[in-house]
Amino acid sequence: GFNTLKHDYPTFGFEWQVEHHTEFIERLISSGQLQLEAAPGQTAVLHDSCFLARYNDIIDPPRQILRAAGMGVTEVARSGKATFCCGGGGGRAWLEEEANPEEGKTRINANRMEELIASAAGQIVTSCPLCMLMLEDAAKRPEFEQRMSSVGLKDIAEVVADRLK
Fold first, then answer.
1. Fewer CB in 10 Å around end: N or C, the chain?
2. Contacts from 106-111 at CB under 8 Å and sequence distance 24+?
3. Whole-angstrom Cα distance, residue 145 to residue 44?
4. Tens digit of each residue's pLDDT (9 = 90 or more) over 54-96
5. With 70 as the cut, is the pLDDT of residue 40 above it?
6. Helices 129-139 + 108-118 axis angle, to 10
7. Under the phi-then-psi rule, with left for phi > 0, alpha for psi from -120 to 50, and beta for the rest, what region is 154?
8. What pLDDT sits at residue 151?
9. Proportion of the chain in helix, strand, coil states, percent, rounded to 5
10. Tell me, what's the pLDDT at 115?
């Protein structure tokens, strides 16, 4: 939705300022209008969605929000502009994907979940509702179910809500 409102709607004559909620939240934190309680000792790994990081270059605001919440930010190899996205925003949330472990094929969201869990962060965070759906689906898979018992999965707005003073 963000990408469509920002880039596609103007071609139809709609002109407005479009700001992603991570940019808005980070601006409120930076200006002192929003204050968060620290979460000392907690670490988070951010799943950069393709439409935010790769296509719109919104990389720093989510990380700054997590740091403002007192969380250490752990990076995975494929992050930022080089993110490996779960496929939700590209339509995978509505498609059935073939997975055949015997051929070495895994679902995109399972592949990404493996990378995020391997980061050893205590919290997996995203800022895209479609990515959240894809990651929640992966978290329910038998190979991740037990490993996810010690790892949280939240949207960045949930992290902020949990840390409001």
1. C
2. 107/138, 108/134, 109/134, 109/135, 109/137, 109/138, 110/138, 110/141, 110/143, 110/144, 111/84
3. 19
4. 888 999 999 999 999 999 999 999 999 999 886 666 666 666 6
5. yes
6. 80
7. beta
8. 95
9. 50, 10, 40
10. 95
Instruction: Name the more confident of 9 and 98.
Output: 9
**Closest C-alpha to 144, from 104, 116, 125, 103:** 116
DSSP 8-state assignment for residue 69 = T
pTM of the model: 0.88
Report the sign of the C-alpha dihedral through residues 49, 107, 135, 73, in that order. negative
Which amino acid makes up residue 27?
R
List strand residue ranges (DSSP E) for 42-160, in order: 43-47, 72-74, 123-126, 152-155
| Exposure b/e, 149-159, CB count within 10 A at least 16 = b | eebebbbbeeb
Residues in the chain: 165
- Could you give the maximum distance between any two Cα atoms of the chain, in Å? 53
Which residue reads 């929640």 in tokens? 136
In this structure, what token pair is assigned to residue 89? 């925003």
Q: In angstroms, rounded to a whole number, what is the distance separating the alpha carbons of residues 106 and 112?
A: 10
